[in-house]
Amino acid sequence: MTGFVIDVHDLCKSFGARKVIEGLSLQVAKGEICGFLGANGSGKTTTIRMLCGLLVPDSGSGNCLGFDILRDGPRIRREVGYMTQRFSYYEDLTVFENLDLVANIYEMADHQNAVRNIMDRMGLADRADQLAGQLSGGWKQRLALAACVLHQPRLLLLDEPTAGVDAKARREFWDLIHDMAGEGLTVLVSTHYMDEAERCKRIVYLASGRIVVQGSAEDVARDSGLVTFEGMGEDIDAVSRRLRHMPGVEAAAVFGRALRIGGMDRVKLEDAIHSVADAGLSWQEVEPRLEDVFIHMLGTKEGKA
Amino acid sequence: MNAFSLRRFLALLKKEWIQMRRDPMTLRLIIMMPLMQLLLFGYALNANPKNLPAGLLTVENSKYERTLVTALHNTGYYDIRRLTSEAQAEQGLADGKLLFVVDIPANFDRSVDRGESPSILIDADGTDPTAIGYAVGSLGGLSTALDHDLPPVRRAQPASPPFQFVVHTRYNPEQLTVLNIVPGLICVVLMMSTLMLTTLAITRERERGTMENLLAMPVRPVEVMLAKITPYIGVGYIQVVVILLVSTILFHLPVHGSLLLLLFVRGLVIASNLALGITFSTLAANQMQATQMAQFTLMPAMMLSGFFFPFLGMPLWAQWVGELLPTTHAMRIARGVLLKGNGLPAVLPDLWPIVLFTIVVVVVAVRFYRETLD
Questions:
Q1: What's the pLDDT tens digit per position in B316-365?
Q2: Helices B344-368 and B259-283 sit at what angle, rounded to 10 degrees?
Q3: Residues contacting residue A177 through CB under 8 Å, at least 6 positions apart
Q4: pTM of the prediction?
């Protein structure tokens, strides 16, 4: 035992000729909330599926909850709660019936009570008899979370759990996850939302099947070496268009009344700002945000720079 | 993880049962399908059509000719009307308004009397051979139609107007077709519905995305499959009962053998179909493929099982293929028990192939049920 809940090395996985994961190593400590980030198709879902034994890696090795991921798939599954990207409970069953099914599949003792407790905790009690297919996106998400923590797993694997859910529901969802992590549950969660990434203790950025960056949100932003300036003034849309194609400007985006530009080369950035001095914007250097960092990594050939 | 958990199985069974109950349209179709097929096969689809439109071309209105026309009419197959010209005959055949044109040559009576054996030309519309088959066959029985009218000299010789066709079947074939078809229909309808329904079962889970979740939970393949099969055994029995009831009431189907034995055998047949359906379901990537696979088996099963064509009339290789199909044996058992009153010893030779088939198919299904998403 390494002390890590997830401890895998050099995982590779191909589908046909397409290499999806190329030498991925990942360690996640107990009670940690680990954010899994990366562009669409970067291998997040495949990694999560390999961790719970739904896919067998072509090469590499590792443990999940102390079980070998190559051999002990069924045992890992008993202890893991896996929430799929797409809602995967039965839409023609009610909330209660879905949870009851899951409780029985895990052969839980006193499953009636367990189901009732989880429904109370997730606020699903009022909707117990509603068909899952008639729930709104946020409630479906809750049902799915309830179903995958029902059997009291030691590790939660959440694959984009909040995609398409409104801000309030997302906030509440994350509060629940933090509560559970506080109780010792380890969580690996993939997401595209930066505010969610910032709520993770550690983030892991995946590109082309490799981990490119990892660390806390602040560390990742600081260590990126990215320089960002913010300009305020009139007509920032026009300035943004002019700046976007200048050398050294990797990203230029308007946020309300502010224009943010970023790049790795400070000198070139400052030159670019000088060249648009006629627009009369007031500039100042700002801390790069996580989002700037990711846009930068996405822009530089999937972060291989 | 234990190999089989009754609790998990029952939980999955309950889920299947709820899902089936919440889909009343499918349930209604399940009951209506055998009824519709039974009525279609019993009433609408007739392999022995009668009163087919026939035109008569003739020069004079002679004695022998009148006798022949009456004889043709009496077969029940020909609805004869007189034509005025050859052009009209051609037009009628081309339009499909006439299936036959009977052309009686000039001086027909005299030629017959002289023993010249004149030819009566019958133009038949061959586009649908089954439609005219029986009618053409009936011509063979008409060779003696003129015998009574022939002059004594001719009677002594084996006078034969040149109709050389198959002997006309004498009993009422229509009645027999229905009785022969109902036992077969029980098998075919069962196969259509149960195979189709289960074929979709696992692919549906896959397409709706619920399979990934099912796989991520500790369930055994055997539990998933049994839970999917069991409700449909009940559905299959409902269909059998509907078919038997309706056939008895509408077609006076005799039940000579033991109904209990029949129902027992049906259970095995249903199980074999369901097992096959589940196997397709695990092999197919999507519902479309699964449906195609089911169609792919339904056709040979209907053609080679002795449902449409007499089994012994098929070439040897086709018989061999037919012997492999559970439907073939199921049909023999159904006919034997219902029409001949066969008991258990008599159906045993057809029983074990069904059981063997089921076991083989279940083994394949369990082997190919993927516990991972690979």
A1: 888 888 888 888 898 888 888 887 777 888 888 889 999 999 999 888 88
A2: 20
A3: A33, A156, A158, A187, A189
A4: 0.74
Residue type, A255: F
**Same domain as A184, residue A36:** yes
**CA distance to partner chain A, nearest, from residue B200 (Å):** 16
Range of the domain at A234: 227-287
- Beta-sheet pairing, A80-83 with B52-57: unpaired
Q: Which residues of B touch A104 (CB under 8 A)?
A: 7-8, 10-11
Length of chain B: 374
Option in B8, B209, B215 nearest A107 (CB)? B8
Q: Which residues pair with A157 in a beta bridge?
A: A82, A188
Distance from CA of A73 to the nearest CA of B (A): 9
C-alpha–C-alpha distance, residues A10 and A57, integer Å: 10
Q: Does B201 touch chain A (CB under 8 A)?
A: no
CA B202, CA B200: separation in Å to the nearest integer?
A: 6
Which CATH number characterizes residue A272's domain? 3.30.70.100
User: What is the spatial distance between Cα B11 and Cα B19, in angstroms, rounded to a whole number?
Assistant: 12
Contact A78 B218 (CB under 8 A): yes
> Is this complex scored with an ipTM above 0.90?
no
DSSP sequence for A42-111: SSHHHHHHHHTTSS--SEEEEEETTEETTT-HHHHHHHEEEE-SS--S-TTSBHHHHHHHHHHHTT-TTH
A305, burial (CB in 10 Å: exposed 0-12, middle 13-18, buried 19+): exposed
CATH code at position A81 = 3.40.50.300
Same domain, A247 and A177: no
Q: How many CB atoms lie within 10 A of CB B248?
A: 14
Of B212, B371, B374, the CB nearest to A84: B212
Nearest CA in chain A to B19: A92
Contacts of residue B19 in chain A, CB cutoff 8 Å? Answer: 90, 92-93
Per-residue pLDDT at B70? 85
